[in-house]
Amino acid sequence: MIKVSVVGAKGRMGSHVVDAVNGAADTELALTLDAGDDLGRITPENTDVVVEFTVPSVSLNNVLALIGQGVDVVVGTTGWTDEKLDQVRAALAEAPRKNQSVFIAPNFAISAVLADHFAKVAAPYFESAEVLELHHPNKVDAPSGTAIHTAHAIADARKAAGLGEVPDNTETDGGSRGQVIDGIHVHAVRLRGLNAHEEVLFGNAGEQLTIRADSFDRISFMPGVLLAVRKIATGDHSGLTVGLDHFLDL
């Protein structure tokens, strides 16, 4: 049995993780912590893997503390920058255990991970590309970590294929063209009734390809969370791993 502790256990995602861990045949719930609780209670003796679902303002400090306590961490909190990821790598280099692991997922939904992969495959074949992400209005970051990850993947594939800039003759848009990430326009919608959705739009003269992933309920993220927990628990993925695609044999 894999002993799993959940940080952010009372949150929207954390509560689902608690249920998923309790419902799986190969995992058992060790500790549940939330804001104000002492992370020092989590040790290698009582926990194999920690699942961290909190908010961007505290997630980095949580992860650094857990690394210092010698436990492996699966992170679902978004808002990770290159600078923050470098801090995690530096902490892992000094970790108490040489094979310690941190896994960070921009998105745990299998559909979203596959959409991101398909977008990377399609990117070299289209002149234009844009990303549209749609979420509930309680989401604290915009654009989403998934959309940022997708934009970077598209940009990398375009560069590798020798494509130039995405065509855009807009002169003054007042921000309506969205945030530009690595040359790709990313648009964020926050609307009551939505959960988590992403569209990747590709265009050539006379044709268009749309790749869309929809998560209608947070339960859709749980198979990905459990997959990450199981992979990290094997001890075969030391260091920092970013993206569930690493575990899907794509």
Automatic annotation (TrEMBL):
Amino acids binding (S)-2,3,4,5-tetrahydrodipicolinate: H136, G145, T146
Any GO molecular function: 4-hydroxy-tetrahydrodipicolinate reductase
Domain Dihydrodipicolinate reductase C-terminal: 114-247
Domain Dihydrodipicolinate reductase N-terminal: 2-108
Superkingdom as given in the UniProt entry: Bacteria
Enzyme Commission no: 1.17.1.8
Ligand binding (NAD(+)): G8, A9, K10, G11, R12, M13, D37, G76, T77, T78, A105, P106, N107, F108
Catalysed transformations (reactions): (S)-2,3,4,5-tetrahydrodipicolinate + NADP(+) + H2O = (2S,4S)-4-hydroxy-2,3,4,5-tetrahydrodipicolinate + NADPH + H(+); (S)-2,3,4,5-tetrahydrodipicolinate + NAD(+) + H2O = (2S,4S)-4-hydroxy-2,3,4,5-tetrahydrodipicolinate + NADH + H(+)
Pfam family membership, one: DapB_N
Subcellular location: Cytoplasm
Principal EC category: oxidoreductase
Keyword terms of this UniProt record: Amino-acid biosynthesis, Cytoplasm, Diaminopimelate biosynthesis, Lysine biosynthesis, NAD, NADP, Oxidoreductase
Record SUPFAM superfamilies: Glyceraldehyde-3-phosphate dehydrogenase-like, C-terminal domain, NAD(P)-binding Rossmann-fold domains
Predominant location category: cytoplasm
Complexes and interactors: Homotetramer.
Function: Catalyzes the conversion of 4-hydroxy-tetrahydrodipicolinate (HTPA) to tetrahydrodipicolinate.
HAMAP family registered for this protein in UniProt: DapB
Name listed for the protein in its UniProt record: 4-hydroxy-tetrahydrodipicolinate reductase
Gene behind the chain: dapB
